[in-house]
Amino acid sequence: MGESDLNFVSGRSKPITVGIVGPESSGKTTVLGALYLLLGRGNLTPDESQFSNSYTLAGWEAVANCLRWKPGQAPHFPPHTPSRAARAPGMLHLAFRRNDGSLRDLLFADAPGEWFQKWAVNQNAADAEGARWIARHADVTLLIADRQALAGPKMGTARNEFQLLAQRAVTEAQGRRLALVWTKGDVEVAPAMEAQIRKAVGSVDFSVPEFTVSVFKRDEVDAALGFQKLFSWILETKRPGVQLPTSEVAGHDPLFRFGRR
Amino acid sequence: MSAQHSILLVGESNVGKTHYGAQFLKRLMVEACALKRNGAATNLEAFTTALGCLADGKATNHTPVSTYVESIWPIKDDAGRTAELVWPDYGGEQVRNLVTQRRIPAPWRERVLEATDWVVLLRLHSLRAEDDLFSRPLQSFANAETKEITEFQPSDQARTIELLQMLLYLAQFNLDRKLRKPRLTVLLSCWDELETSELPENLLAATLPMFWAFIRSNWESPTVMGLSALGKALSMTESDPDYAIRGPEEFGYVILPHGKKDNDITLPIQWLMSTWA
Hints:
The complex is a heterodimer of chains A (261) and B (277).
Chain A: H1 6-10, E1 16-21, H2 28-40, E2 49-53, H3 57-65, E3 90-98, E4 103-110, H4 113-121, H5 129-137, E5 140-146, H6 147-151, H7 155-173, E6 177-183, H8 191-200, E7 210-212, H9 223-235
Parallel strand pairs in A: 1-4, 1-5, 5-6, 6-7
Antiparallel strand pairs in A: 2-3, 3-4
Chain B: E1 3-10, H1 17-30, E2 36-37, H2 45-55, E3 68-76, E4 82-90, H3 93-101, H4 106-114, E5 117-122, H5 156-170, E6 183-188, H6 200-207, H7 209-218, E7 223-228, H8 241-246, E8 253-255, E9 261-262, H9 267-274
Parallel strand pairs in B: 1-4, 1-5, 5-6, 6-7
Antiparallel strand pairs in B: 2-3, 3-4, 7-8, 8-9
């Protein structure tokens, strides 16, 4: 789903946009794939929020496909998300129906890591338009800290990159929701490094929610748990402001009922 | 003047649409069911082969891909409500093509718009449940060669949801509120091969959780029933002596939502009729 299709979703009521911010191969797409797999297993959300529909089922399937077992093929990480000259990231949509019968639309922005790396260095970088788009529109920002990179041979570079990116993301979030998500949670990271990362997102002054996710089981903790916690936090997001009036218009296409605000 | 109720019978190939139609018709003919004939059916061509095969205790052939015939059956129930059932028979590939090609042929568009009730046939036995990282964890990604995969098959669950989403869009329903119309009935066909004593609803929820969430969150009161149109597996070549002697109308059953088994396979439709009005 691209920028022009967004009108279609946002006509109903403004969806909640979730931006996933992190460097290359830090596991952004894997997080999305894992969320979708859990949804498919009926394990993602509690009964109060039931899956209602998705305009991008094929997109979700593509993302989650690599994480499934195939005859003669074990799951593997999703391939690198290519960066093209696009100005807005690819979007994945999910809608949930809550107990009161209303729908909650979520849009997940899956952007290539290069965009963020360039954006971290230069906010106005020519090829970071997509990253700026996310920063401008995201109601929820998930800042990805890649534990494998932070424990690997190039951990210094990884830390440095994260600090730059975190600084940029936290400034841009301007009070909107932001969470620190540790990916590849099965990898051990030096406590001093963890402290540095927390410092970078400003956890010292105010508390930033933290989630640890991994597609592997950790010490008998089910791998699904981390993703479930993360997702219920995302679902809690409330959009301040206008309640859309319900209308009795017969037209079926929400786009023609409410303008996009 | 009786109301015309057109049933949109949705099912991919090999779920047993033709068998159900033929058995339904046979029940109407011998009047061994809750619904009664209210005049003669218009055109039985589509089901003559199936009726013939079943009378001998054989399974019928696959319905050709391009076939689409509708047959109109005037019926009435015990309360005197009358209706005209529009019962379609078609090659199930048409349904799969809707999703894979993302193109809706014009005739299908009209059918969807005219339909008052949707009956979805699912054969759980033939749906794949794929293992993924959560059901069967990996120890590590042993230097996975990242093969460029350009083509993949969407999961059966996603395809089924996508199909209903497309039909909803086509029929111009929006999901702002839960739907009362069209009424939705999910029939889990070939129930006999599942060999289970679960309630149909629970079985569906366990097998296709996301699909179950989808229909529960978007329909006011979806109905899930089990259906075994034939009662047992029949071969296409060997005839079944029981069938030949006792007649196909003696076979087949439905599992009602609360788990009761009933030999009257017209009950899903009668159930729909009783809530029409």
